[in-house]
Amino acid sequence: MMAKSFFSFIFIGVILNGFVSCQRPKFVNIGAVFTFDSVIGRAARPAIEAAVSDINKDTRILKGTELRLFMEDAKCNIFLGSIGAFQVLEKHVVAIIGPQSSGIAHMISQIANGLQVPLISYAATDPTLSALQFPFFVRTTQSDSYQMAAMADLIDFYGWKEVIGIYVDDDSGRNGIAALDDELEKKMAKMYKLRLSVNFDETEIMNLLKQSKLLGPRVYVVFVNPDPKLRIFTIAQKLQMMDDNYVWLATDWLSTTLDSISHINQTSFSALQGVVGLRQHIPDSSQKKAFLSRWKLMQQNGSASSELNTYGLQAYDTVWAVAYAIDWFLNEFKNITFSSPDKLHDIKTSHLRLGELKVFSNGSSLLNKILQTNFTGLSGRMQFNNDRNIENGGFDVINIENMSIHTVGYWANISGFSLLAPETRQGDQTNYSRVDQKLQKIIWPGGTLERPRGWVIADNEKPLRIGVPHRVSFVDFVTEVNKSHKIEGYCIDVFLEARKLVPYDVPYRFEAFGDGRSNPNYNELIRMVEEDVFDAAVGDIAIITNRTKIVDFSQPYASTGLVIVAPVRNSKSSAWVFLKPFTVEMWCVIAASFVMIAVVIWILEHRVNDEFRGPPRRQIITMFMFSFSTLFKTNQETTVSPLGRMVMVVWLFLLLVITASYTASLTSILTVQQLSSPITDIDSLIATNWPIGYQEGSFVYGYLSESLYIPRSRLISLGSPGEYEKALRLGPNGGGVAAIIAELPYVEIFLTHQSEFGIIGRPFTRGGWGFAFQRESPLAVDISTAILKLSETGELQRIRNRWFCKQGCPEDKRQNSDPNQLHLTSFWGLYLLCGIFAIVALLAFLLRVVRQFVRYKRRQMQLASPSVISSNTRCSQVIFHFFDFIDEKEEAIKKMFTQHENPTSHTSLER
């Protein structure tokens, strides 16, 4: 009987134990560790408490299980935050909400990993918290890597290439600014980093901002913790750094600060004029509006002491995400179990009761439930990606104007900048182009709508240091004038004209580089720009590969290339050498003048000279034979008319001058010294063992020795055009050189006064001269733009002409292959004189003939019957009668007039 009762007792115990194990627990503990008295904490605490209250009242979730909240104040201290974490873990919490500080999150995450308790933060934005090192860390806010991508896009949108990043030197600050640096590097932009201590004061801010003025950029990205006093901007205003020369960009700490404060000091707010910032985008919804109304009531009854900000909304949603996950977990596992870690049993301490800490046996399962959460909360869609971060929701771009906050656009990683909120844009737009980017007009510091330049080159106290080569040869390009510290030359004029087109003032100071006894080494000049001895270098500086690796060059302002200069063969002795004294233009004019004289003389002699009469074919032959025979003085025909003889005198004088000039020029061409050179191109020059000259200080020495592998023993340094000439005349066998390799502009100047030397072949390299600037100097871009404008307007060519074309441009003289050729410009006066005499003679002849024709027609009308004369006959035949009249011999015309005047003839006519 007793045995039967014993088995019955065991059976009932088993049934009761199974029933209890299948029931949900009456309560579940969660913890929260964050800084209560902070901009974020003052909004997060009432939001978390409200969320717990709403969950416990909602019968649709947890189904009778109460959610208990244990909160500890981290007080912005990693040590106290860690203690707070241990204190809530002693309560056997299944999850910890918080912290808001990334530094504290790093420490608590290690504890959460050991006890397998999920840590869900609504405000820790450090990008490194997403690493595999922290598998139990989940984030319900945007990571700074995402925010910094938005900031980098904003900087790139307005075209700034250099910025200054101001950040707090803690884990969050360092890692966040590093993320921005990585994003800017993708945009080919550069950032100077200026750090503040964690507990910075106004003195530290002032010193840092003064230090930043020594840098070129004027675009500031402020990445600090929320600061109700807005100290950075108020001090920047005191330092006059809030004018239209500056750009101030702020991460979402600024919007969080402004959203959290009911009444901001007007003085502090006025310092924000023109600041542009980011705010995490929260879509509008009825839930959000209802909670905002509820928040007002909470402020009135004292349960909320600040305005609601983005992090407060995310804190509320974080609690709901944990509650949903616990509900799903209990539906599956029914119960929550903890186990004692073996390692903690061995630790003996009287203060920290580490032995009471338990490992959450199903922590990984609850973590998976949290990561599978998908619902719409007050802050938008609550859904996690593979990095355990909330799905990106985008950012608002805000602008502070006239003591108020204006949203000027939105940013999302799939669409870039847009005037439409991210949730209203449909489809995947990852491949958006820059043309699609749009933002509203922004009011910048100083109240201007024009985009600030964002950097300064120099100020009057620290002008730009420009190194200028102190040349001792070819000084027309650039040099110092007689140790007067005055720099002038073609290159200097180009720079000064380009500087005028740069849309801002560029204070500068030229500093001569060189000893004044020899041309300086240009590679050393470029190296001094790289090493910050000079800010820039202006002069005849060739743009070559090795130099572009260490400095930035402007757009080339002069085309250059290496050419070979050597004694040249004057190839005059050819079958057509007799044509060389005159240019083609001159030969054409001479031929035309012979034709003109032939026609003029024929007109003047045709009526009086029997040799110019006869059949048309004979007249044409006679006409041209007479004209061309005057050249050799073999013409058999003689001129009879006074006008013809007058024209012939002038014509023969013109022929005398032309033939004498032709003879002299041809003699010079045929007797000029014949210089020879077997060099045809660079390959034939390299193949010889002859010495080669190069210009002192130029890059040519390195190019010939390192690129063309010419032995350095063959290379002879030459400094001046005089040394060029002497070395070429001596030749390779007389202690000189066989040829000189130099840049084309120098060679053109040298050949201006030389006829015995010439360029062999074509330039075998192509290049240009430019101005050198330090790496990533914005001035290089603006000077390049100015040089292009100078080229388009023709000013670049006019500057060159002023320096090198006073007696004809070098290239024009170089293109003239034969300096002994005679041009039309040398004879146009004689041709003009001959033409005037010919025209005067023709006019006098025509006037005389017209008078004779009129007299003839009157006589004819007197003898004819009036009825026979008709106006139609006169008009149609008068021209033919005139030409027939001209064709008559002068003697016949005179005889006709004599017969009409004879009285006998009159009597017979009357009869």
From TrEMBL:
Annotated membrane topology: Multi-pass membrane protein
SUPFAM superfamilies: Periplasmic binding protein-like I, Periplasmic binding protein-like II
Subcellular location: Membrane
Signal sequence, renumbered to the chain: 1-22
Chain ranges of the Ionotropic glutamate receptor C-terminal domain: 465-806
GO terms assigned for molecular function: G protein-coupled receptor activity; ligand-gated monoatomic ion channel activity; signaling receptor activity
Keyword tags: Glycoprotein, Ion channel, Ion transport, Ligand-gated ion channel, Membrane, Receptor, Signal, Transmembrane, Transmembrane helix, Transport
Gene3D superfamilies: 1.10.287.70, 3.40.50.2300, Periplasmic binding protein-like II
Transmembrane annotation, as ranges: 584-604, 649-670, 828-850
UniProt cross-references to InterPro entries, sorted A to Z: ANF_lig-bd_rcpt, GABAb_receptor_plant_PBP1, Glu/Gly-bd, GPCR_3, Ionotropic_Glu_rcpt, Iontro_rcpt_C, Iontropic_Glu_rcpt_pln, Peripla_BP_I
Record family assignment: Belongs to the glutamate-gated ion channel (TC 1.A.10.1) family.
Function recorded in the entry: Glutamate-gated receptor that probably acts as non-selective cation channel.
Name assigned to this protein: Glutamate receptor
